[in-house]
Design brief:
- The chain is mainly alpha-helical.
- Helix content is about 70%, strand content about 5%.
- The radius of gyration is 38 Å and the shape is rod-shaped.
């Protein structure tokens, strides 16, 4: 085949454009410090990078879930600790005033204290976190507990749990059923509000002997009610430990994912600088060769 001047010119033009394009790519690589900026740079590598980015996003979501769960458990612990102390205070009052040696006036004064305790326990049972009721099960917009004028309590929530995903194969279930904490008589536990009412009724009973018997009957049951709350606190403590373990795992996993992604995505700057020098030399050599072969008019056109 006869090589014409036009073919030679087109070949040199193509070589110059190719060298210029390679120079630009290498300069961009050095400026961005990334080996892969778009799919055409390395389709397989970009697919792996996108996979790592997805893993990092999922990791961040799990850590956010874990943080929410830990906050809820810590809030639950503080709330139930207060409730436990209140019930124990009521138990102490019952134990102290179970004998018939106290006057009706004294008992009425203590009854008023127990009424305050009753309302404080209900207030803790109706605690809210981030504008949601903590002990209402799934019915987070419903006030969990209410009472009538005679101190009869009603649970308005359900038996739902607060569930969060903390890893691909792990779900944390956090107790949110206030009935199991404060009104668990149906499961063999204690209805704490009923026992506080029984204590109030005993203290206000005008028959001091019968009232003393009523008061005495609440002492051990209120102790069991306190223990019932503390048992739920123990469950929360175990759940908190599991979340802390999951959080530590996710925290340690993130830098490993970032390191693996960087190994694929980031450029070797030293290698890229050497490559740039070689490309500059090739580009300048091609230009010099073209200048010797063709008339200056071609070089002027190319420039």
């Amino acid at each position: 085949m006869r090589v014409t001047q036009l073919i030679t010119t087109n070949n040199f033009t193509r070589y110059i454009h190719q060298h210029a394009e390679n120079l630009l790519k290498t300069q961009q690589k050095i400026a961005s410090q990334k080996r892969i900026s778009k799919i055409s740079d390395d389709p397989v590598g970009m697919g792996q990078v996108l996979g790592f980015r997805t893993n990092l996003a999922v990791n961040d979501q799990y850590q956010e879930n874990i943080s929410r769960g830990m906050t809820r458990l810590e809030f639950t612990e503080v709330t139930l600790e207060l409730a436990s102390d209140l019930v124990d205070t009521a138990r102490g009052l019952a134990s102290t005033h179970a004998s018939g040696s106290h006057s009706a006036a004294t008992r009425q004064s203590v009854a008023n204290q127990v009424k305050d305790i009753y309302d404080q326990v209900m207030q803790t049972a109706n605690s809210k976190l981030n504008n949601n009721y903590v002990f209402a099960g799934h019915a987070t917009n419903a006030v969990p507990f209410s009472r009538d004028f005679d101190y009869n309590a009603t649970y308005n929530g359900d038996d739902g749990e607060f569930r969060i995903m903390v890893s691909d194969n792990m779900e944390a279930n956090i107790l949110a059923d206030g009935g199991k904490i404060f009104q668990d008589a149906a499961n063999g536990g204690v209805n704490i509000f009923d026992e506080l009412k029984n204590l109030i009724d005993g203290l206000e009973n005008p028959d001091l002997v019968a009232g003393s018997a009523q008061i005495a009957a609440t002492v051990d049951v209120l102790r069991d009610g306190r223990d019932q709350i503390n048992s739920r606190r123990s469950e929360s403590a175990l759940a908190l430990y599991h979340l802390q373990t999951a959080d530590e795992y996710m925290s340690n996993l993130r830098p490993k994912l970032e390191e693996a992604m960087a190994a694929l995505e980031q450029a070797d700057i030293t290698k890229a600088a050497v490559e740039l020098k070689n490309l500059e030399l090739a580009y300048e050599t091609t230009l010099a060769t073209a200048a010797r072969i063709f008339q200056p008019k071609l070089m002027d056109f190319l420039r």
